[in-house]
Design brief:
Largest sheet of chain B: 7 strands, mixed
CATH architecture of the largest domain in chain A: 3-Layer(aba) Sandwich
CATH topology of the largest domain in chain A: Alpha-D-Glucose-1,6-Bisphosphate, Chain A, domain 3
Strand order of the largest sheet of chain B: 1-2-6-5-3-4-7
CATH architecture of the largest domain in chain B: 3-Layer(aba) Sandwich
CATH class of the largest domain in chain A: Alpha Beta
Number of helices of chain B: 15
Number of strands of chain B: 20
Strand content of chain A: 15-25%
Oligomer: heterodimer
Structural class of chain A: alpha/beta
CATH topology of the largest domain in chain B: Alpha-D-Glucose-1,6-Bisphosphate, Chain A, domain 3
Distance between the termini of chain A: 18 Å
CATH superfamily of the largest domain in chain B: Alpha-D-Glucose-1,6-Bisphosphate, subunit A, domain 3
Number of strands of chain A: 20
Distance between the termini of chain B: 10 Å
Radius of gyration of chain B: 22 Å
CATH class of the largest domain in chain B: Alpha Beta
């Protein structure tokens, strides 16, 4: 079985199996047809397969008459912010975010700099399935223009958004593990902008991932091992396209990626109240934070596209996911790791508190996240069967099955990116979380067998 | 008549029309097949100056990376320099994105073996089998090779040219040379070569931007401007390169185009004077070659049309011939590299001028005088095949018939040749005679016969 995941805002698969030049060209050709011969921004993370996908995208976009504004190795949030100032009509980011090196993916960005919404995505997919891509004659082919310098505009905007002076005065020492991803190329600029002392780990943008590029405690050992020794104030882990961040405290505690969004929300909602958007599988922490700040919380299906669309529709102030992605409506409607780091540093500086102290202000829950392999052909029917397990409870089925009670909640859903069933359990008591997770997993395994 | 397909897959590679048949998907599939065929390793990837070059080259790079090859992007590069580099750099092969002399809306790919030669017909067959089976050797990302770029790809070729020819002798003459690069890949090397040869160059159409100032085929109608440039600039000689710089046409100091058949004739006359030996050329090359070779007691070996056929014959001969080529301005100096090379042709002619002390018009006069007319009629390969069978019956007994490639008939005072093009859906029609009138008469008659037969087909 070849793994290929086609979602509303892109396509993801294993290079050499499902991700081939042909597939990439067909998708990029469909996107170029949808964009209709206008300029498209193109960027990639550092994955070794990146140049293959980039060449395929470039060729296909040019053939549909789209000019390619080439950002080279560049994180997705930077591309997203640059779509408007560069007068592009869309973008393609070549990145598989947190997936391991075997994977790669195309993420389609709209003219607004957001992930495609479900209507836009459906239009691109229709063109893809129809297989009829726009083909222009020689004289109307697109051209490639180098656009790497445009990245300056991103950092200028970030510098204007953050109180950089306050951060600089705090003279922070910050450890950042960019996992040799696209962020590695730019963390030095962030340090320069905000005037902190950077202690970089895995900062060669060469695509060799020393651990999975997924910001979470499991991958934080390197940061944890040095953070006290170097006397750093905070540590950050990035995924390969800097859309997610997880945090390590100055005491060497590796925080669950669930903490990132509530930390930002807890700080910013104080002065800027409004709707907060998160997905169904994110920790209850954000509910408590929003409630304490008197802000409404809206839950959506899992995926950046859904969260951001809701953020825009509901005129929200921020959106975020338990995976470590945070977007602020006032900056840009995109999960943005640079912004996330900057906002957290600013909160530390403004409040004069250590990161461990800021974390203490948050409620603590215990979350268990497990994934179970399931053949893609029967994955949805298996999840459907799980309803039997929850018989008698009220179920939210907008994305998988979610059951909630006073103590916590359970979510069983198919992964958007892999042939996996995700089981997420959160509870105020650690043992109960583990026990409920084990029960659900046991039930699912019985169905699969 | 049914619509003629705009995709040509032949021993000359793949050619098609951008926006119609030649898509990124197709180019990537051929690159994957080629990478699978050569089994990985570095592959030189270049382009001529056509605006569609980048689009196709990116597709080729993508395909090569996916099957574990390491593409070495040399950008816009003259094809003889490209072939030379492929061999010199010990690469596994090369893919040149070019449609040679086809009109601007065309582009294509030529596939090159590790020896720096176009794939032979047998190799092409093996490679196309892989393409058609569609089973490509995709590798895991861990085994990907990075993309490399080479910014000075013509350097090894230039060095070789300068070590082979009598540079001092040419430099001593301080020739004034007008060059029309057709805004093609030749512009990458021509200025540096002429500077090294101590020439005072006048360039026209020397921006390799693919905005071909005229049709890239160096035919008389495209050549008015260079002739004027030679006259007004009082140049000793004028040169016109085709878009990928494998072919060369020569203009005399009087501003008269010599006709593309003269390039090889001039080169052969000079080279055979220094190094006697056989000459290899294709069937439709001028009869003048036979006369020149005859003067030196040298044999002429004729091959099917297609550069690789000439090259294969050259490589099969021992000792290796000193000169070969095609009447279309394609001169091969095998000691440099067995491929058509407009730069080597320039060097030969400049050295001839220097060594003989004669002007180009005088050298031209010393050649056996023939007049060739090349025309084309539209028609697919299949129509050409039927046509040739019918024509053959018509010419039975009227002259010596050769069927090596299409139909060639050598009659008392002229010859004719009819064959399908390898690169475009057209039928080439050629006649040569001792006088312009006879050649014209022959081509008129032949075309009349063809159109009568085409109505029957």
């Amino acid at each position: 079985m070849k793994l290929l995941k086609i979602g509303i805002s892109g396509v993801r698969g294993i290079v050499g199996e499902s991700i081939t030049p042909r597939l990439v060209m067909d998708f990029a050709g469909a996107f170029g047809t949808y964009i209709n011969s206008k300029p498209v921004l193109l960027a990639r993370d550092t994955r070794i397969s990146g140049p293959m996908l980039q060449a395929a995208c470039t060729s296909a976009l040019l053939s549909t008459g789209c000019a390619v504004l080439d950002l080279g190795v560049c994180p997705t949030p930077i591309l997203q912010l640059l779509v408007k100032p560069l007068k592009a009509m869309g973008g393609i980011s070549i990145t598989a975010g947190h997936n391991d090196i075997k994977w790669n993916a195309l993420t389609f960005i709209s003219r607004d700099g957001t992930y495609l919404n479900s209507f836009q995505g459906a239009e691109v997919l229709d063109i893809y399935h129809l297989g009829k891509f726009k083909k222009v004659a020689t004289d109307r082919l697109g051209r490639v223009k180098a656009a790497e310098k445009a990245v300056d505009a991103y950092f200028e905007k970030l510098g204007a958004f953050i109180n950089a002076e306050a951060v600089a005065e705090a003279r922070f020492k910050v450890v950042i593990d960019a996992c040799n991803g696209a962020g590695a190329k730019f963390i030095g600029r962030l340090a320069g902008l905000l005037g902190f002392e950077l202690i970089p780990i895995n900062h060669e943008p060469n695509g060799f991932f020393p651990h999975d590029p997924e910001p979470r405690p499991r991958n934080a050992q390197q940061v944890v091992s040095i953070i006290k020794a170097v006397g750093a104030d905070v540590g950050f882990l990035l995924n390969s396209d800097v859309s997610r961040v997880s945090i390590v405290t100055e005491t060497g505690e590796s925080l669950s990626e669930e903490f990132t969004f509530p930390l930002v929300a807890h700080d910013l909602l104080e002065d800027d109240c409004g709707p907060v958007v998160t997905n169904l599988s994110t920790s209850r922490m954000i509910e408590d934070v929003a409630r304490s700040r008197n802000c409404p919380l809206i839950r959506t299906k899992v995926g950046q596209s859904y969260a951001i669309q809701t953020l825009l529709q509901e005129n929200g102030v921020m959106a975020g996911e338990g995976s470590g992605g945070v977007a602020l409506a006032k900056f840009q409607p995109a999960f943005d790791g640079f912004l996330t780091m900057a906002v957290i540093l600013e909160a530390m500086a403004r409040r004069g508190k250590k990161i461990s102290q800021l974390v203490k202000e948050l409620p603590r829950y215990h979350i268990v996240k497990e994934k179970i392999y399931c053949p893609p052909t029967k994955i949805h029917s298996v999840v459907n069967e799980v309803k039997k397990f929850f018989r008698g409870h009220e179920m939210d089925t907008s994305d998988g099955i979610r059951v909630e009670d006073k103590q916590g909640w359970v979510l069983v859903r198919t992964s958007g990116t892999e042939p996996m069933i995700r089981v997420i359990v959160e509870d105020s008591a650690k043992d109960r979380a583990r026990q409920r997770a084990d029960e659900v997993i046991h039930f699912i395994n019985l169905i699969i067998k | 008549m049914k619509k003629i397909s705009s995709l040509k897959i032949s021993i000359s590679g793949v050619r098609g029309i951008i926006g119609e048949s030649l898509t990124p998907q197709l180019a990537a599939a051929f690159a994957q097949a080629f990478g699978t065929y050569i089994g990985g390793g570095p592959v030189i990837v270049g382009q001529d100056a056509r605006p569609s070059g980048t689009m196709l080259k990116q597709a080729v790079i993508s395909g090569l990376l996916a099957v574990g090859c390491q593409p070495v992007d040399v950008g816009i590069c003259p094809i003889p320099s490209f072939l030379f580099l492929t061999k010199e750099s010990k690469s596994s092969g090369g893919i040149a994105v070019t449609a040679s002399h086809n009109p601007k809306e065309w582009n294509g790919m030529k596939f090159i073996s590790r020896d720096g030669l176009y794939l032979t017909p047998h190799q092409t067959e093996e490679f196309l089998d892989i393409y058609h089976q569609g089973e490509f050797y995709f590798v895991e990302p861990e085994r990907y090779k990075g993309l490399k770029t080479e910014s000075n790809p013509a350097e090894p070729h230039l060095k070789k040219l300068l070590s082979y020819f009598d540079v001092d002798r040419i430099r001593g003459k301080k020739f004034k040379v007008a060059v029309d690069c057709s805004n093609g890949a030749g512009a990458v090397l021509a200025p540096r070569l002429l500077e090294a040869l101590g020439c005072e160059p006048i360039f026209i159409h020397c921006l390799p931007d693919g905005a071909f100032a005229h049709d890239p085929e160096p035919l008389p109608e495209n050549i008015v401007e260079i002739c004027r440039t030679v006259r007004e600039g009082k140049a000793d000689v004028g040169f016109v390169q085709d878009a990928d710089a494998d072919r060369l046409a020569v203009v005399s100091e009087k501003g008269e185009l010599l006709g593309e058949e003269s390039t090889l004739a001039l080169a052969a006359q000079y080279v055979l004077g220094k190094t006697p030996g056989p000459v290899v050329c294709n069937l439709s090359t001028t009869q003048a070659i036979d006369d020149i070779a005859g003067r030196f007691g040298a044999p002429v070996v004729r091959t099917k049309i297609g550069e690789i056929n000439v090259v294969e014959r050259i490589l099969a001969m021992e000792p290796r011939p000193a000169i070969g080529g095609e009447g279309n301005g394609g001169v091969i100096v095998p000691d440099i590299h067995p491929c058509r090379d407009s730069f080597a042709a320039m060097c030969v002619i400049l050295e001839y001028m220097a060594a003989s002390g004669k002007r180009v018009s005088a050298l031209q006069k010393s050649l056996p005088q023939y007049f060739m007319i090349k025309e084309k009629v539209s028609g697919s390969a299949e129509q050409a095949y039927r046509l040739i069978n019918l024509l053959r019956k018509k010419y039975e007994g009227k002259g010596r018939i050769e069927l090596l490639d299409g139909l060639k008939v050598r009659m008392n005072d002229h010859w004719i040749h009819v064959r399908p093009s390898n690169t475009e859906p057209i039928i080439r029609v050629i006649a040569e005679a001792k006088s312009r009138e006879k050649a014209k008469a022959a081509i008129r008659r032949l075309k009349r016969e063809i159109s009568a037969l085409q109505r029957k087909i």
